[in-house]
Amino acid sequence: MNATASSPSSPAGKILWAAIAIVGAFCLGVVALRRGEPINAIWLVAAAIAVFVIGYRFYGTFINNRVLQLDPSRATPAVLRNDGLDYVPTDKWVVFGHHFAAIAGAGPLVGPVLAAQMGYLPGTLWILFGVVFAGAVQDFMILGLSIRRDGRSLGNMLRDELGPLPGIVAMFGVLVLMMIVLAVLALVVVKALTHSPWGTFTVACTIPIALLMGAYLRWFRPGRILEVSLIGLVLLLGSIWLGKAVYDSPVWGPMFDFDAKHLAWMLIAYGFCASVLPVWLLLAPRDYLSTFLKIGTIALLALAIFLAAPMLQLPAVTRYIDGTGPVFAGNLFPFLFITIACGAVSGWHSIISSGTTPKLLANEGQAQLVGYGGMLMEAFVAIMALVAAASLHPGVYFAMNSPSALIGTTVEHAATTISQWGFVVTPDQLTQTAKDIGENSILSRAGGAPTLAVGMAQLLHGIIPGEGMMGFWYHYAILFEALFILTTVDAGTRVGRFMIQEIAGLIHKPLQQTESWTGNLLATAICVALWGYFLYQGAVDPLGGINTLWPLFGIANQMLAAIALMLCTVVVVKLKRQRYMWAPGIPAIWLVVCTLTAGWEKLSGPISFTAAANKYAQGIADGKLIAPAKSVDEMHRIVSNNHVDMVLTGLFMALVVAMVLFALRAIARATQMDRPTAHEEPYVALSSVAQS
Amino acid sequence: MIATHAAPHRTLRTAGRAVWKWAVQTARLCCGVPDYDVYVRHLKQHHPGRKIPSYEEFFRERQEARYKGTGGRCC
């Protein structure tokens, strides 16, 4: 790229990088050290940009040159196996855009919002340093490994480098993780739409809109994605506008007013239909719409933060770093590091970095921009989500994110409780906020999405004021999050269905055929039942569901990241570059420690699933009801749900330990060898391959 | 990128066109549809005997392919 200006060795370059370092350090100092008075969000954003730029230029380049030793003269899979479809040498900025769109999802928006209960500083520091030293390293290194292996997937690479059994173990982990991801994300939507006629109406409208788009693309104007997406966008905005009328109407409003249990069932039914129907009808058009809306909204959020430059009203650090917070239970260590997964480091990305992206890169020299740079962009999204949450009134933040078991169901009770916690808020403020955004109540809307939506609505309202516009912006933000979460649920169910059909095919061959309706319906039903079980459990959970399920999701996601980083460490050793094994090795160890500690605390101790199960089992034995359970049946259900969560946590921990042992075995074997033993494809010079 | 001393409005227009082309290509790729022209060029060059699909056929094939495999998107 621009080698002269960014080279740190030239005098001008030295001055430039020193200046960036000083500005960054100063901004970070303001963020970290100023206490007692609120600071402006711009300090935080500026500090983040400086850290990212320096991280990219120095640490990213170090990983590129020393650890991966990528070589711009070496032909990539896209060049070698060019087929014009899957393997295509593509412009680096196009690949960057594609990669970012594939990794960015609801995760970086939700995690930081939940973690804001500890204040904005812990989350900020973990996102900034986590991404530079762990998250971006993982994405970039997996991408680098995959380019050298014909664009192979994570599962294949694990099989090749660690052995067949570790490959199977890890892929089993991925399937379980996917079910948890789908359940948690669907739960975020349920929490956002509970008793919200306006939101439910607009999200429901996306189904007929998508069907219309699907038909348009199929018969009327085949393949015109951009055109049909614009039409879809206009219809979506229209449905938000119409949603207000529905909310105001005494007839229509109650028809779209559902409780969590009903919404969960509807999502389960919808997920089943969407993944059984032909993709062109419902799944694909929603996917297009959600992809464009996602990128557009992230850009809008960035613009809003820069223009509105909000003050951060939340304290830098709250007393909840001691683990007594209402949003999720658990100490700063390890729970901060599993609550913010996507945005700092996310195992899920290793699947994408070894999926489509390595088959598109025209040159190894571009992997740093796409792999490392793409993840920095995602971290920036996480920082913006944190800013949106921290610029809310702290009382409003806690009212939205605390379960009703703690703050009650009336604004008076909630305001009193939260004020006693030290975040003074009046019932009027809570009522007024709900009224501003066109909702009946803002209490206990956990899951991150509604909080982010209120934050975004306030920011946008500050720039573009207008009577009643807050409600529009709020529902726009809810719609955009619901839309892309539901797309993930549909597509994930389909992927899960294929995985299950493959496994079922081992038992009864005909079930494997993806065209067979029996196999299709059966596998889809199993897949939907798997995530649906956890979704339903979350929807009826007295503690609000997110409180229980988000740690499980965090543990699973960070477990996958640990596995991916262990693979990187093993390969570095196998390449005889042991002196750099710390680069992927230290973050791998850190994530193993975090997931195992979090898992252990969820298995034994005061905040564990075990403690919750025992408490209710004791209640049943003593014959008394423990709130918020309303019947003995509910008590039994809570006990069995907690038992399932215990088994799952234990399973994840066993998986991590097994993978650590496999990795250590591979490292021990590799160190005994006197030559490199990694399974790289042989070197082919780029210049020797005919350009096409 | 290469600064020539041609009329500034022309370079601006070329730049605009390049950005638009980038945006369209990226947007399509995000939906799992790679560049059609590149595919046609590839077919002509390497598989001259094969029938060249229309954009509509190409689009349908890619749409089906996108939701067949594993992976694809993030949380």
UniProtKB/TrEMBL annotation, chain A:
Membrane topology, as annotated: Multi-pass membrane protein
CstA N-terminal domain ranges (all copies): 40-598
InterPro entries, alphabetized: CstA, CstA_N
Subcellular locations according to the entry: Cell membrane
Keyword set, alphabetical order: Cell membrane, Membrane, Transmembrane, Transmembrane helix, Transport
Domain of life from the UniProt record: Bacteria
Main location group: membrane
Coiled-coil ranges from the UniProt annotation: none
Residue spans crossing the bilayer: 15-33, 40-59, 125-147, 168-190, 196-217, 224-243, 263-283, 295-316, 328-348, 369-392, 473-496, 517-536, 548-573, 580-600, 646-667
Family per record: Belongs to the peptide transporter carbon starvation (CstA) (TC 2.A.114) family.
Protein name: Carbon starvation protein A
UniProtKB/TrEMBL annotation, chain B:
One Pfam family named in its UniProt record: Sel_put
PANTHER family documented for this protein: CYTOPLASMIC PROTEIN, CYTOPLASMIC PROTEIN-RELATED
This protein's name: YbdD/YjiX family protein
Native source species: Dyella lutea
